[in-house]
Amino acid sequence: MSRREAGPASDGARGGRPGVAVDAVDLGRTYDLGGTSVAALRGVSLTIAAGDYVAIVGPSGSGKSTLMHLLGGLDRPTGGRLAIGGRDVATLDAGELAKLRNETIGFVFQSFHLLPRTSAVDNVALPLVYRGIGGRRRRTMAAAMLGRVGLGHRLDHRPNQLSGGEQQRVAIARALVTDPVVLLADEPTGNLDSVTGESVLSLLEDLNASSGVALVLVTHDREVAARARRQVVMRDGVVVVPPADDPGTPTVVPAARRGPEIVDPAPSAEPRRASGSDSGHPFGGSGGATGATERRGDTPAAGDRCERCGGSTGTGPGSGS
Ligand SMILES: Nc1ncnc2c1ncn2[C@@H]1O[C@H](COP(=O)(O)OP(=O)(O)OP(=O)(O)O)[C@@H](O)[C@H]1O
Ligand SMILES: [Mg+2]
């Protein structure tokens, strides 16, 4: 599927500085836990260029997932400046941010986050609901994307009828069906055996090479990280080794923190996320702002729940026309 087919015209980055997809300057994220505050990010600057391939590494709790959620507009920084597709997220309301996310970002998570009672093709079609694309066309686009990830023969399988690697490929197809500028993958191979993980990683790399989608990958695996064109090493909420050729990353590297990369062998599965975030559904909706769209329920199965938006995705009659 071409970018033109999926949505807005693309220059490879869609607005802002030419060739720059996401621009983060001195980003901070502090969680307020009723009296105590947790500084998960303490001034991170990073530029993701169109077509980039960046690995983010660092020990458990260093802020990798927090950063990914900010870069993808799933959460908002409490400090610094963040531009996605050239638009300063501070100037956007929840609905505008959700729309920008749907047009620009694809997410892949360690634990897939597929709707359990919904077929592969309808899981992949879900982000297209928020684009207002009709049911038949959604299905055609989703089926084509599943074909690209090698699952053209599994369209009507539900997640529990698929292997782990197949489920992750469905999740990748869902992330890419909107033709995003940036694909954010948070430990996408973390729940997969090494052979399956390798095939998922190769798929992501092929898509990066063939479609030009920028790939930002969180991993605890040194060998995986070494395959990226650039590595960002995080520790304690700061970037300790910025990518050498990142024009947006200041070279403020605390001397005491400089050192060999630490790879935590037992990372947590998924981060906890801030309550009260207004960012809503990772695949395009903004919770309340697009509730009417979600309630149409013409993609997810009846009563299926979306783990990422915390609510029922619909009670409608399965896939649309
Ligand atoms: N919603 C939250 N409320 C409070 N603290 C949080 C929340 N989410 C994350 N944190 C804290 O922020 C820090 C960074 O968390 P984050 O999930 O970004 O780490 P990570 O680098 O992704 O770790 P892992 O490799 O284990 O996934 C941690 O200390 C974590 O406890
Ligand atoms: Mg994490």
UniProtKB/TrEMBL annotation:
Pfam families: ABC_tran. It comes from the Bacteria. Keywords: ATP-binding, Nucleotide-binding, Transport. Residues 311-321 have a biased composition (Gly residues). One of its GO terms (molecular function) is ATP binding. PROSITE patterns: ABC_TRANSPORTER_1, ABC_TRANSPORTER_2. Residues 293-308 have a biased composition (Basic and acidic residues). Residues 244-254 have a biased composition (Low complexity). Residues 244-321 are annotated as: Disordered. Residues 22-262 form the ABC transporter domain. This is ABC transporter ATP-binding protein. It comes from Plantactinospora solaniradicis.
